[in-house]
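Issue: copy button drops trailing tokens. Both records pasted manually instead:
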Amino acid sequence: MAEALVLEEPRTLVHRELALPEIGDDGLLRVEACLLCGTDHELYTDAIAPGFGFVPGHEASRPWRPGAVRAGEFLHGEPTGDGEWSFAIGRERHGAFGGAFGGLVAACCVHAARSLAPGRRPEALDARFLRGLPAGDARVACTSIHEGKSLSCVSVDVIDQRGRLATRATVSLVSSDVLDPLDHDGASGDPPAITPYGDGVAWRNPPGVEVPIITTFSPRATARGGRGIGTSIPVPWNEPGNDAEAACLAADFCVGPPVAGAFPDTWIPHPNPDLSVRFTGAPVADVVTGIGRLEGIDAGLASVRVEVWSVGRLVAIGVSSSLLLRT
């Protein structure tokens, strides 16, 4: 699905979610900004009347990346029927502590949950990573546990090839049709100071530790200050409407750096066994940044506050725990 402003009658633009077109061998162009010309004003005011109920704007702007894939293709996910999916998760998508990268698993959960609530947008994710998910095909089983006028809630189980439960998540999705399109800046304040991705510091493997996702996602350190430590990644697909999946990747990436930074002279394994994210609905651009702030560590249990930003807009907020393990 894609978000659009539909000119339904003169001087009346209405926010809608529209199905993406089938594109064959062509590419999709995601519109980040649209310039205005005299024709747009004439259409808006009914000076030109082609018939209403259309998406205006013909001077669109959006970078196009040749060879980019859809989100489902990047996640290697295929529906198998009855609310179940299969995701092929290779070793290149593993993190530092054994098993698949939690942000990728969370993104798969959101992507699969959409199939049980078509037309609704993800509002929340709560994931518990119960055990490391090994390389191979993961079975993702979705169950609708609530379907209301405004909100759907889907339970998602991620099961490894040996039939063991690896992750249990819930995903809530909201109907845009019931929402009053009000906006407010809230208390998030000005966007944090984020270094452009090209000027960021590339992540490196810790001594003696292999982290395959560093090669796969190319994370870079792009912010440090009172708001926390920022990690930016390029969004690995160029498809509108999958902003929540991208936010999951950035949210999980930013959990580790502030925990590791608390003890810079000692490598301590610090996996995060959970991730809770609330999505604002703001779209992401080509790069998304997660900012993690360490709220405290008590007897080896760390709590991290998470913000996800893109092009100056808050995309998601969340929280995660980290376990500082004895070696």
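Record 2 (pasted manually too):
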Amino acid sequence: MRFVVKTAITLVVLVVLGFLFDKVIMPFYTLGGEIVKVPNVCSLSINEAEAKLSQSGLAPKLGYNRYDKTRELNTVLSQNPTAGSSVKKGRHVYLSVNKKSQKPISLPDYKGRIITDVKLSLEKIGLELGEINYSIIYSEDQDGMVLSQSIPPKTLLAGGTEVNFIVGKMAVESGQKQSLVPDLTGISLSEAQKIIIDNSFALGNVSFRFSSSLIPNTIINQKPASGQVAPLGKPIDIVVATDKQTPIN
């Protein structure tokens, strides 16, 4: 009798587990999506690339067309996601195809943008990154930023046109970044302190000198002088006007 009861219980458990696996576990797994590897379709013709992606359970989608004179026409130049990426089955894979005929492209204004961002933007719209030349600058805000481009913004260009850039590069001497000393003369002490900090220098020695013609706390002199090149963090000594006959030090 006990054997019959145990057998019945076992059968019931198996039935319940089978039901849960079929109705709960499998639908949950399917909902999560099967993970597949993205194949490499670069250099394939667009038809071959679409077929290969479809066979992998992925959805090919045409992105921006570009023209590369060194590659065969109608072949895939780049893909996103890249080859080897793990994605869910059914994911779109965007393809950039080598096509010579396309609408003229309006060149964006890249001034003030990081050159790595510029490169990605050019690839996206179908243009090519040309030469990058560097110009010494003395402002950290311009370090690594585009200062100018060889072709004016909004110019209509054919796909594959190269655009050259001049990028700012902070002056460095003995391993220290250099910058131009700001002009502090003629402004108040509080304004001078803010400008010194904003320009990544330090406030050095502050001395006072009597002046009957200047408003008290006006900067009379500074060292280093404005316009000189000095390492960031260098103290700037200043002389401040006072209405007191006895100098304050």
